[in-house]
Amino acid sequence: MSYSAEDIAHMRAALALARRGQGATWPNPSVGCVVVKDNRVVGRGVTATGGRPHAEPQALQMAGDKARGATAYVTLEPCCHWGRTPPCTDALIAAGIARVVVAAQDPDKRVDSQGIAKLRAAGIRTEVGLLETEAHAILAGFFQRIGTGRPLVTLKLATTLDGKIATASGESQWITGPEARRMAHAIRGRHDAILVGVGTVLADDPDLTCRIPGFAKRPIVRVVADSHLRTPLSARLVATAREAPTWILTRPDADPARKAALQAAGVELFAVPAGDGGLDIAAALQALGAAGIGWLMTEGGGQIAAALLRADLVDRLAWFHAPATMGGDGWPGVHAFGLEKLADMPRFTRTGIVPLGNDLLTEYTRR
């Protein structure tokens, strides 16, 4: 199907809206909608913080009576089922929309082409596939969660040239410079949740927030893999658990008294089966996917990185390199994970290189 230059421009505008909402709309995907009449934009909408309301009713509300006979450009197939909000297909039909252009079909079994069929049955000209590749990039975490049950995982590492994250004494702040750290926060802000191991909590007592003013409207979910509940009640993550969600993945047989104390502080606990030396990392990701997390960033430490790489669960790498070396007694960014054959190495394709002051960010995706 051929599209006009105007169609492409309006869908690009809808995609820009969807991109803006990334990291703030889970458990729903970030969707953009632009309503156009006589080649003039009369309504815009993006999935609201927390996932509701959806993009389409917001754009239609802005358009008002001008929606009748107009075209709606939507980055994801409109929903056709009742959830916590009415179906978006019903809103488009009731508003008198004449044409709907959809970038990507929704793989959720509650929708999956049924929304498109419902619009067509109502006499609305409905077209699918405009800028689909761009839409899939924005919706990758959602598609991953629906398709596999787990989030899309970005492993972020900030190391010396020889792959170290701390000195032998544990000193780690700061290996990279301010430009690299600001970029790391920007990457955080595009994810639903951030995962660290309890070792990182004990060593650094991190906040795990996106500290770029105005960047994230919704606090990132902070997740700690802590099989034996060693996270101190005095940790910053626990102290701020009522301000920003704090989840701990732990074994079912963890100390009941520790569980009760953490829950009383506002921490949410997830029972995950034990694995080699800690938790079953694949089961942990399934638990996060079931909780609605589509985009997961993990920052450390080396044990978590090794577990994810060993299980082939890293989808993207964001590797910050500082132009310095530390030597063999430094802490490695990735711990040993039992690799014996070159053929078994996790391999990635480089997708970007970004200079950041004196540091370098190299981005990769899994092959």
Proportion of helical residues? 25-40%
Structural class of the secondary elements? alpha/beta
Please tell me how large the radius of gyration is: 22 Å
Overall morphology:
globular
Profile the largest sheet.
Answer: 9 strands, mixed
The proportion of residues in beta strands is 25-35%
How many alpha or pi helices?
Answer: 12
Q: What does the average pLDDT come to? A: 93
The secondary-structure element order is HEEHEHEHEHHEEHEHEHEHEEEHEHEEEE
Strand ordering within the main sheet:
11-10-9-8-14-6-15-18-17
Total strand count, please? 18
Uncertain spans, ≥5 residues at pLDDT below 50? none
What is the CA–CA distance across the termini?
Answer: 31 Å
Give structural attributes.
single chain, 367 residues, alpha/beta, 9-stranded mixed beta sheet, 12 helices, 26% strand
Structure description:
This protein is globular. The protein starts with a helix and ends with a strand. The chain is built from 12 helices and 18 strands. Strands 11-10-9-8-14-6-15-18-17 form a 9-stranded mixed sheet, with helices on both faces. It has a 5-stranded mixed sheet with strand order 2-1-3-4-5, with helices on both faces. The model has no long low-confidence stretch (mean pLDDT 93). The protein has helices at 5-20, 55-63, 88-95, 114-121, 132-138, 140-148, 178-189, 198-204, 236-239, 256-264, 281-290, 302-310, and strands spanning 32-37, 40-46, 71-76, 99-104, 125-128, 152-160, 164-166, 193-197, 221-225, 246-250, 268-271, 274-275, 278-279, 295-300, 316-322, 331-332, 348-356, 359-366. With 367 residues, it is an alpha/beta fold.
